[in-house]
Amino acid sequence: MSKTLDRLSLLETFVRIAERGSISGAARDLGLSQASASRHLQELESRFGLQLMRRTTHSLALTQAGLDLLRDARSLLTGWDALRETHSGTDSAVRGPLKVVAPVALGQLYLADIAADFQMAHPEVSLTWDLNDQPIRFAEVGCDCWIRIGRVPDETLVIREIGRVERLVVASPGLLAGFCPVTQDLVSGLPFVALSPFEGGRISLRDTQGRDLAFEPRISMATNNIFAVHRAVLKGAGAAILPRWFVQADLDNGRLTDILPAWRAAELRINAAYLPAGRQPKRLSSFLRCVTDQVALVPGIGASEPR
Amino acid sequence: MSKTLDRLSLLETFVRIAERGSISGAARDLGLSQASASRHLQELESRFGLQLMRRTTHSLALTQAGLDLLRDARSLLTGWDALRETHSGTDSAVRGPLKVVAPVALGQLYLADIAADFQMAHPEVSLTWDLNDQPIRFAEVGCDCWIRIGRVPDETLVIREIGRVERLVVASPGLLAGFCPVTQDLVSGLPFVALSPFEGGRISLRDTQGRDLAFEPRISMATNNIFAVHRAVLKGAGAAILPRWFVQADLDNGRLTDILPAWRAAELRINAAYLPAGRQPKRLSSFLRCVTDQVALVPGIGASEPR
DNA sequence: AGCGGTTACGAAAGACGTAAGGATG
DNA sequence: CATCCTTACGTCTTTCGTAACCGCT
Q1: pTM, full prediction
Q2: What is the per-residue pLDDT across A254-279, written as a single tens digit (0 to 9) for each?
Q3: What are the CB-based long-range contacts (under 8 Å, 24+) for A36-40?
Q4: What residues of chain A lie within 8 A of the CB of B68, using their CB?
């Protein structure tokens, strides 16, 4: 067992191997020979006295121990990165790779603009913008920041609320022809277009005075894609609960109507999650600040206090 | 500039040099030659491109940059330590050095017992138990856990409440001869022995129903030592506000009286502070758990929820 | 003069890449 | 059979300790 091999380098190699699922790939990335990368991994295993990856000739799989280590290793490396940035004599700019995972719909509209602005404000940042609504295995995926609507299913991450989604009940004027004006009683008779996952088949609303209203709508159509919901609602296939930021333009030009202006579905939190490390690299803290600030300007997204 | 020297080792050497205030001393500690330790420091400075310590031939002084780095370096090293412990194949026991700074009075009585019990429960831990009521410069001192009554003057630390000090107004039966029973009105006529720092010369009490009572007592004696207060109060030099944990025995055997049983001075928080690192080494998390649990058993110290 | 930090030098350790070996889909 | 990981080997980098050098107190 060697004594002098840089411990952080060992972790870097390990993390890269885990990300790429390949020793030779990681070696290419890091400018090492395959042999070196392989040795690094062995060295790490030998130091910890446990197997991190199970090797079958043509594939690598993290062991449970490896999976556990992966998260902590990333956290530590982030810590080093931040330390290096904070204490480098030459004032370092915001730079380096930054991988963000965000929800599809939000991420391809407003957030995409914000992300693009951020990148252009910091040209030395190399931004990876992955849109994905599914829970990700943060530790394995190697991302720096995960933006998610609603609960973040990972207790090991630091969660920070960056906004809230105001949701309202909308429908096209056509659909409403026979219902005008819509009352609380009549709304339960409307067909609804549901955006999956749709919890329990019930819609729960609350009005400005805190009163509750719940009913089980007739679902005319269900889809997991918000744009499909949108088209269906425009055509009059049903009413729907949609985020204000998504339908604001339609409300303005009259293609959709907020049919129960006093009533709102529960707000959803927009959370940003990242690894706990003593400090964050500038590119991440800067990105979070940027997103938080910009998101607050989007109609129907109440901002939370920056911390 | 070398490329392969272990980055964490560099930081370790730097931290040790800063703690010892001497390169040769640190070298001895770490089992290196003076030359190596010196080179490590130079190497670190060269990598960061700034001067960490100002050397005059016979003394070392941290520069501001060095001071800043010190804290983050410790945090990172703690992170490595925790990672190594968490992921070592051979199940690691609670072990290693642990330096705690605690308040003098609390630290030489109940807390000393708790600390001793902890050490005996974990013989492989080498415990340094420094008692000090003054604010310490955490980053420089190199301690792992700082227990302090009241506010912890360091925003970079993680604070955790481990208990609260209930304080009551006590006096010796002798002093009370002419005042028995003591009423709210009469108490302001009593001489008081003050425990410095004594805020603003005023005593503020609150009763069980939330009513306030404040007065400016005549101070017969002021000292920063709680044992001196204790002796003076026993002899009848005045009443005093003292923690319940400190006077419980005297109350039980009648040498002191809780003269206003319905009234209490504001509770003081007992806080534990430590460096933010992703995870804590077992010896620290284990110590915190032990202290929190044990402190809850001391009369007059309300425990907070463990997290 | 003594103590402590820095620099020079030779020796030893070890990390790297190349290349060969072996296993799997 | 192509790909990918591991192992062996020779080279070369780099680090280490010793020891001489230099500056303060």
Answers
A1: 0.87
A2: 999 998 888 899 899 999 999 998 88
A3: A37/A13, A40/A5, A40/A9, A40/A10, A40/A13, A40/A14
A4: 86-87
